[in-house]
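Can anyone check this?
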Amino acid sequence: MTVQLVTGEFSKIETLDMVTQMFEMRIKFHEDKIMSSHNEEDIKMRENKIKFLQGELGQARKYLVLKDELIAVSCTITF
């Protein structure tokens, strides 16, 4: 199944906000799992995933700041 989550052109500010919220949601997901986990390996894996997501968000922000005012965005979820 495929779900088109986002599609369209958005302002730079809207795009930054949308992307930031998506990354923050994923980070919070892993933080919540860490809080309920007692498995050391799982916690370390999730901590590494959080660091990775934070780095990716930083890269995305740097990229988007350099873009024109309208940015085409497409986000599809497949499962």
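Reply from J.R.: I decoded it. The CA atoms of residues 4 and 46 lie 27 Å apart.
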